[in-house]
Amino acid sequence: MKHLYTFAIAGMTCHACEKLITMDLAEAGFTPQSIDHQSGQLIIEIDPADVDAVKQAVQASKTYTIADAYTVADVTLIN
To answer: What is the mean pLDDT of residues 15-20?
Structure first.
């Protein structure tokens, strides 16, 4: 089951940072729900097994670091 995670990202300073991280995540196969440089938060729906892969994608440029990650809530998909 997928969970909604919030990642605290250090180093984001502008909208270009948001776009770069979004592109890095897309290359790794992930789509963020929300990313905001002002709050320094990334919200993304992923399987728990993908937490490390998201961290690696964000930190790949060596510009950004993950300060913290926590589960916001379990995500139930309604069909």
So the answer is: 96
